[in-house]
Amino acid sequence: MVYVALFLAVQGGVLVAFTSSIPPGVRGQIEDQLNASARVFKRIMSEREAQLGVSAQLLARDYGFRDAIATADEPTIRSALRNQQQRIGADLAVVLDLDGTIVTTLTGNARNTNNGGAGGADTGAPELPSSFMAEAEEKGAASRILPVQDRLYQLVLVPVMAPEPIAWIVFGTELDQAAARDIKALSPIDLDLAFLRRGDDGALHLAAATSSHAALEAFLAQPAESATGSLLQGAHEVNQHLFWGLPLLEQDGRTQVAAVLYYSLDSAMQAYTRLVAILLLVTAGGLLVLIVGSVLVSRGVTRPLRDLARASQRVAAGDYREVVAPARDVEFNDLTGSFNRMVGAVKEREQHIRFQASHDIETGLPNRLDFERRLGEHLAAGKPTAVALVEIQNLAELRVVLTHADVNDLMGAIGDRLGCLASSAPARLSTESFALLLDGDEGTAPDADRRLEALATTIRNSFLAPFTVGDIVVDTSARLGLVRHPRDGEDIATLLRHACAALDSARLHPQGLAWYDRDSDDSRNRRLSLMSELREGLSNGEVTFAYQPKLDLATGTVKAVEALVRWKSATRGFVPPDEFIPLAERTGDVRLLTEWGLRTAVRQLAAWQERGCEVAIAVNLSTSDLMNQRLPQLVAGLLHEHRVPASRLKLEVTESAVMQDAARALAVLNELAAMGLSLSIDDYGTGYSSLGYIKRLPVSEIKIDKSFVTHLATSEEDNILVRSTIDLGHNLGLSVTAEGVEDEESLRRLRAYGCDCVQGYLISRPVPVADLEPFLGSAHHVEA
Ligand code: C2E
Ligand code: CA
Ligand code: CA
Description:
This protein has 26 helices and 27 strands.
């Protein structure tokens, strides 16, 4: 549209400029031409007149002719007249006597009639005005354009003198169509010429013309021409013609005879009109070409653009198909190419982001988000669904020997193995647990449960084969918690929470797998409330220490007692430590317990110190205590506050507590040992670590677990184990304590094996501090 409008504006401008400037120019040009032609016309007329005049005078002076006139020798006159007429080609030749009577007259155009005008009849004498005669007599010749009978003539009148005038000679050329054409032929332009003559009715009439013309009629009909009787000289425009009037005879103030040159403006304009027509045609053609071209070009431009626009909408909607570039078009090929590259990059990035959002970065397995999404889909589809939560059990120990990358590799390998067994990919829910989406089966509930349990067992058994990470062969085991939709939960969150609870109770099951159990979940809630009660008990005196003496076999004295927590709850009665300590370890409350225990022990030590008693107290620490980097600071603060030497406080830790995060535990233990505290490995023999590893810990004592000691009297195997442990401990420079000594025989053997200290019911049960008095005296010897 814009191109068409511009084109039309330019072409319109050209046309307007063209058409508005042409007519005035053309008119001016024609006026000039007519003016020039008029001058030419006048010259032709005067040349004719001169020719006629000379011929007539020659004849008039001819002696023979004059003689013939004087003698009225008519034949001679006639012959001489004819000779002269023929020589000059005059249309009319007349000899008149002085009173105007025709002596002889010859008519006929010599040019047209070669018979010498012999056939020409007398046309009668022209009526010559007296002024004409007078002028001729005076000047020897005069000329006029006069009508003779019905015709117009250019006449020359010459007197024949002898020496007085005796006759007149008249020579004339008719101003007829032929004359007009002759003159026209001499004009530089193709004009028309007409002779006009005033008729008896007083109006100008056409005498002769080069051609008949309607325009001429219109010119003659003009009121100015007919009414005033005087021809307008110069240029006039009438009826699309330009007229140029030339009066030839004026009489009584009126034009009697005139010539009119005229030229059709239309024909002058014709060339220009044709040019305009061609211009219009070119404009129309150009417009057509322009429209077609514009449409084609704009289609060529807009179609690929529209394609791209549509493609970008598709991309926005997530459809990343390639756009095909229009052939031949380099620019659009480039644009489409970069568009496709952009779409490709967006697609790649989206895939990457989607993958990252839904996958565990370390192992590349689906993550919790992805698992929850898949579970949600299953639930929405109403598929019978079950979830198994798989926890890798001994990862804590493995972390000691494996690097972070190894652990990730291991988790990846575990994921692969789980993936082979379950129909769907396992998701990594946390650092140590995976989730599997299983078919719930629509069969009867017990059947489905049994089938899922069988699958869970298969999964667990798959861990019997070791994993290879790098060049290390790793043994792991797994626990599984199972839930089934909708029995164990309607929604994702509930199902996963209950799966966690099931996994929790799987810890207590020997098969290492458990279904979610609402009742045990209730007991879990009870256990949680137990913790808040424990926190209260720690502050209100329900929690106390019982102390169990450790008998030094070399001296037979009690140099230390172990502090064991006792909780007599007002609502629950006696709560055994095995019941609330593992729970407190999981909830984090054990730190409060430890802080309380350390404070109580140090206070007790201060009280004993007051009385000069130098017995040491051993306090048990938990796993999370070893992760507590502020623990050494806390201990130092307490010892300093109560002015108790660090050597009085002993700390017992289990191997597995150290293994959980050996690096951090070691840092805490080193700091404590540096302060002068002595550290013991508790429950030695139940863990996995070798004595070689123990050696690297800053401990001074190992306590052989009571499970090896209690049956020492009967079990030969235990004897070997205990004896070799004592030897190994000694070899490593450690002091060895045996716990759980219940009978004399065991004590005897321990003594024989060189055990340093014994602890057990045989010596004393753990007793309140008040009952400890018998063991505190430095001189006190325990006889066993
Ligand atoms: P443990 O450190 O191995 O404590 C020794 C356990 O053996 C005590 O059980 C004690 O009563 C029992 N015992 C002592 N002599 C004999 C014996 O001759 N035969 C038998 N069968 N058992 C004997 P208790 O008091 O029930 O404590 C259980 C565990 O609770 C302790 O094992 C210790 O790991 C933990 N514990 C107790 N008090 C604390 C505490 O204050 N803090 C922490 N973190 N843990 C504590
Ligand atoms: Ca202990
Ligand atoms: Ca122990």
